[in-house]
Amino acid sequence: MKTSRLSTVDIIAMKHKRERIVALTAYDYTSAQMLDAAGIDIILVGDTLGMVVQGEETTLPVSLDDVLYHARMVMRGARRALVVADMPFMSYQVSTEDALRNAGRLMKEAHVGAVKIEGGADVAPLIERLVKIGIPVCGHLGFTPQSTHTLGGPRVQGRTVNDAVTLIADAQALASAGAFAIVLELVPASLAEEITQRVRVPTIGIGSGPACDGEIQVFHDLFGLYTDFQPRHTRRYLNVAQQLTAAAKQYREDVTTRTFPGPEQTIDLKPEVKEELREFLRRSSGAVKSIRAKGSRA
């Protein structure tokens, strides 16, 4: 396993070597450290932070500054993984100039290795422009969360022949534009397999079956930190929310019963200093003035 920082070139090579690509989201330094130590290949600073970190109902309220803030933390924690930052809603849809400026900020200010953009053939010209100026781009097809209101919420995309053909064409357009990878979200497994076979760049699935070149999941879903709902496409490897709640209850019990902090967590005065202080306080009979060395400026 490569120990230096992975690049988009490394990710593309993994497809051709038939090596599965493992991706997860992260939003802070500590989480990024843990995922990096586990050998995760891609860490996505996703706009899902709006839901699992900020408590919003969708990803739409997330701002570019939000992503920048979290991406900086993740970059400090991840030494090996390729870190990709989401371009949030309305950070690239208004104009090409806006998109170039905002993507450039993510690269310059957060030092991420790539950005991710949602959309099909309509965003291919933008992806081509970004790649030409040196900004690697990951595409995102299928269910695109920034279009949740027009799509009617999280729904499987590409169920009809026409929709399936459109998704294949979209994937080919993104690959031709220079995207180094394409996320396929909530795409029927057989269609995801067709797309994977027809594009030269890696596909990274989420809710799209096992035939994609890689898999991405949301950190909080995978480890049971987000309790509002559990997507069908995730597998819960831990129930951290339950464990943390139980631990917090135990902490509350220990504090209220004065069993924490105990001797192991306590620092005290040396016995001779403690005795001297008690004698001083006894003689002072009430009012206590600071004892300072003569000439002290403290």
Descriptive notes:
It is a single chain. With 298 residues, this protein is an alpha/beta fold. It folds into 2 domains: 8-238, Phosphoenolpyruvate-binding domains (TIM Barrel, Alpha-Beta Barrel); 245-284, no CATH class. 42% of the residues lie in helices and 13% in strands. The chain is built from 12 helices and 8 strands. An 8-stranded parallel barrel has the order 1-2-3-4-5-6-7-8, surrounded by 7 helices. The model has no long low-confidence stretch (mean pLDDT 96). It is found in: Cytoplasm. Catalyzes the reversible reaction in which hydroxymethyl group from 5,10-methylenetetrahydrofolate is transferred onto alpha-ketoisovalerate to form ketopantoate.
Say what the CATH topology of the largest domain is. TIM Barrel
Q: Structural class of the secondary structure composition?
A: alpha/beta
User: Low-confidence parts lasting 5 or more residues at pLDDT below 50?
Assistant: none
Query: How would you describe the shape?
Result: elongated
Side by side, the strands of the main sheet go 1-2-3-4-5-6-7-8
What is the count of DSSP helices, taking H or I runs of 4+ residues? 12
> What is the H level of CATH, i.e. the homologous superfamily of the largest domain?
Phosphoenolpyruvate-binding domains
Largest sheet: 8 strands, parallel, barrel
Order of helices and strands: HEHEHHEHEHEHHEHEEHHH
Number of strands: 8
Catalytic activity: (6R)-5,10-methylene-5,6,7,8-tetrahydrofolate + 3-methyl-2-oxobutanoate + H2O = 2-dehydropantoate + (6S)-5,6,7,8-tetrahydrofolate
Enzyme class: transferase
Main location: cytoplasm
Cofactor: Mg(2+)
